[in-house]
Amino acid sequence: MPEKTQIAAKDIIFETEKNMLAIPAKLVKAYSIDINGDAVYESPLNVISNGKVIPVKTTLLYDAKTQDSTIYVDNSEGINKGDLLIINKSEYVVISEISDLKITLSHKLDNDHQAGNTVEKVITFELFEGKNLQEHILYLGHEEILNLKEKAYILIGIKPFIKDSLESASVLWEYWGEDDNKKLGWHNLNIKQPLKAIIDFIEGIFNIDVIVLEKDKIGEIKKHKVNEKESLWIRCRVKDRLVKEDLLSQIKIDYLLITSLPWFDLNMGIAGLTGIQADRAFHNDIPLELTLEDTSENFTNSVYPFGNIPRLFDTFYIASKEAFSKKGANIILKFNITPPSTGSTDLRLSWEYWNGKGWQVLTIIKDETNRFLQPGDKKVEFNCPEDIEETEVSGQKNYWIRTRIISGDYGKEKFVKGVNDTWIINTGDIKPPKFNNLTIIYIPKPQSARYCFAYNNLMFRDVTEEGKDIDSKSFNPFMVIDDAHQSMYLGFDKKLEKGPICIFFSIEEQLWDEKLPAIE
Predict the structure, then answer these.
(1) Closest Cα to residue 443, out of 397, 362, 381?
(2) Cα→Cα distances 503→23, 506, 519, Å
(3) Residue-wise pLDDT tens digits, 189-220
(4) Left (φ > 0), alpha (ψ -120 to 50) or beta: where does 345 sit?
(5) For residues 353, 355, 358 and 359, what is the CA-based torsion angle, rounded to 10 degrees?
(6) Which of 247, 252, 351, 372 could pair with 362 in a Cys bridge, judged by C-beta atoms 3.0 to 4.6 Å apart?
(7) Is the Cα dihedral 84, 88, 90, 96 positive or negative?
(8) C-alpha 194: how far from its chain's center?
(9) How many CA atoms, within 13 angstroms, populate the side-chain half-sphere of residue 326?
């Protein structure tokens, strides 16, 4: 822009005194980096927007507890999404959503706060102060293995085994989904130390050392987006900043595997692996009642899989999103069959599954029920097909298997003479199968994570291939900032070209302190 160029701002005319270079790039981000505290701080929005801002000071309406992600204030005027607040002059928080007096935070609170504590909007960028946005997280995503609705165990096999690091109090394992109260968010997974017999059983599945995580909540793991990828997720998050650098430096992973098991009492050993309940069951298009008695694991009423009078091509459907989504897993259906039940010599059942195009034959490894003719606790065992898909049965979308009567019978109706020589139907020879309980055990094969992301320094790094390749180089999931000095970063929406470029700062006047950093 040549000298004496005039620029109008409403009624006021400005004129340049000398030649000036103006660039179209706009400042959109500003961060300060504290290498000593492994911290990243972002400037308040108004600092980079140059918009007029009015200081806001309000108070908490109610007590706020540690780990809360919402607060309520007595006046939210002037507070907006993305603003930085400071509560009681001690804890910084960032607003992710605001609705009337309810403020949802981007992170859970680190401390308790009482009703009446001050809440102030931060409008100046004080270097190396504010909400520390630095996080070190390893995300693992898998839509089949982590398809868990009930209590369960999630098993992580890692080589080399870094037990002291990933089982220490310095990290927190979490899943994304619902808790017992249907609250959606990240919820804790408990690190367990099973009996040796359980460890031997689990490590026999993996052939490497394993971390055992307990999902002790009934809530379902839900789909969630991480790094623009939608899946079912667990994560390992470094939480102890005091030992973080020592922890981060020692963690190197060659490869990792993941699987899951239904919840059971670890103190009972493998005998405690009793399985989960089916989601739904149908006889043809008739729903079957699977409600359990309060005092036992039996159904309140016996279930007739083919109805009271089974006929040719009658079908028994079983649904379990948690079990039948585990492709390649060993599946065991446990029935408690009630006698008596009889069948013709040509009685045959066909077990089937849906592969996305049609019903296919399900290969049965073992059928202790002998077509539901054997009384007592009996098993049907098979490997979950690799191509099984969800489908709708009577309007219910789920992972389904079914068994059909394709020949023979469980007894036939006959006509007998009744009163006044009238012919009536007699069903006395029909002995339909029935059972008092059905549980499902699944033992999935360990698999590589479908997605494996490392999150450090506000950036994602895709380490999926490194995590699944035994022959690849090891990777470090947690990385500290590699700057040599305390720093400030400015981000622009366009490339900076030509120059020299002058950047002007509006500095808040403050008392001199010899400890303040010098600008070089």
Answers:
(1) 381
(2) 11, 10, 14
(3) 999 887 777 777 777 777 777 888 999 998 99
(4) alpha
(5) -10
(6) 351
(7) negative
(8) 23
(9) 28
